[in-house]
User: What shape does this take?
Amino acid sequence: MRARDTVSPELAALGDATRGAIARLLLEADDHALTVGRLTEALTLRQPTVSHHVRVLHEAGIVERTPRGREVWYSLPEAVAARLEDWAPSTADESISAELIERIIDDLSTRFAGTFSRETVQRVVLDSYELLRGREGGRALPSATAQFASERLSAQEATALDAAGQRAAGKPIDVLFVCVQNAGRSQLASAIMRHLGGDRVRVRTAGSAPIDAIRPAVVTALDEIGVPLGGEFPKPLTDDVVRAADVVITMGCGDACPVFPGKRYLDWPVADPAGQPLDRVREIRDDIDGRVRGLLSALTARG
Assistant: This one.
């Protein structure tokens, strides 16, 4: 794994997903420069939204503003571009050192002490790592591996408790949202469900063919209604999260989701936001919002 320096204050502005996407586009462009119009087209966002994020990057000293005739171009200074090349998550060749893998295993063994042996934790961590490596960009591989493995171990823990008849009174209802890329519909639904359901639900997401990062338009559509996405990122579908679920909601993934007895399965015919303009993504968001509210009401009414 390539060494990463401590993130400077200037680069802290890139913590926002949309601004990070803008920086990646500039990094990949000729001369590291693009206009707001070209960024708007690439991100499928509204121009005022892109202009706002570009202004934040400009004020942080991450991009430079250069008029060229009637157009204004925004570019990465050479020093910033070099910094981003080193700081940004590496591509499909990224790997994690054996020492860091051991640390992740040790940390999760401590977290799940008394529930899983170190050997079980090691197996899940290594399998999660292999499933995630090969992505291009998106969440940094070490933290993504740790989060993905933790979610899978939590799912296995919940399944084991249920099998032993030790389901605690008031236990959160486990809800799993699945779509194809785990970058649009399932992320919209899970974020809204977490926001509305609080401690009453435990929400997970997965994709039958996940891509590298959540779509910027989805992040923007959630921001507009005050719903945080948190540290979510696209994850592959695994049997353990399906086994742990009380309710599995699929959106466009066909027969990819394994079927286990005792689960409630729902299929929502929701449009895919991929490649759609922000206005259409808002419509999809609102459709999903209504469906989530109905499902939450039904689930909590049952107790």
Remarks:
- Residues 187 and 244 are 19 Å apart (CA to CA).
